[in-house]
């Protein structure tokens, strides 16, 4: 960082229009994900996210560090740093630029090309994905199925484009000379509702890529602003709607095993919340970030993100929201092996839940009821290695969901998969296999990499018991499904 005196003698940053043009119609989060994928192709690891892309486009980073340079030149072969809109390295790192250290505008975000995993911060870090990218063959198979066709048609009915980059470009150009109106803001809000509804019924796989197009449109509308007739209320709705849409798309990425993409989308939502001063959106973004951090094997970050969510939510008047956030914190403590911290957070979650629903509960929390409370508690005890206790809570979650919220098919499958895993680890293979068969029966309707990964783990755990009749049936059906979907 430069001193105030040196900064005052430096001209303000000049936007990097060349780099912005190369991003095209992709959102900053999508472009950041592409950068991380390109880095992996050449053996680099960079922590690119939407905030970093924004800093480059704003001209705050006049020249990237060496790791980013190698990645950008790999992404755009035949171009130089100057072609990408950056200043020559000598201009920002040479003797003439500054006597000691990096010059203003040089990329010092990640010195020595290392990843800083400290938390909290305003942007995400690159994470190691727990599984391979979803198979193109499998994705195509799902997208041609009847369930997916209905889902995509439902999403397209809200009035936002599903045609990908080209369609989003058309929308962006259409709004270049005019502001968004209330109807379009309403369409963004409806897209959020539709995505959540479709995810509840069908799971994330197959929806993720299609849902990214409405997200691009939402941010195109943000770029255009809102009409004067709409006033501040419509502008606030647009910011909130775009942020919630980013979280919804991030969840689809999260549930389908695309952790890097999910982190970037959640980071976009958090940045939108900070820019618009929206504590409800900020609490939601941190809440999901905590869940993602737990799943990605960063339990300490999960605890701190949940605590940040609680701070953002403390004046929102929703005990149920604070209860869910406490469960996110409990999951982090469980991942750290801290039983006392986990129990304390679980006690707080139950006490807040028992206060009951409130008119101020966020719309997105419709999934959070007794079944989800039991399901998340089961995951905590499972992480702590208390399999019998975990299986009791998972059994309750699956039973309550089937009777009280049968429309949440994806959650019923998730709780039952959790039950199968806990029973297998508790040494009850016949019961685990029976639960696994119930999950398999739901997978024609539900597509979720998370659930299928859990089921695959259960199958491995049951292999030593494969001669038992019920276990044999489950293993054969699971293997047959794996052959069809790969």
UniProtKB/TrEMBL annotation:
Gene3D superfamilies: Tetratricopeptide repeat domain. InterPro entries: TPR-like_helical_dom_sf. SUPFAM superfamilies: TPR-like (SSF48452). Residues 110-125 have a biased composition (Basic and acidic residues). Residues 93-137 are annotated as: Disordered. This is Sporulation protein. It comes from Streptomyces aurantiacus JA 4570.
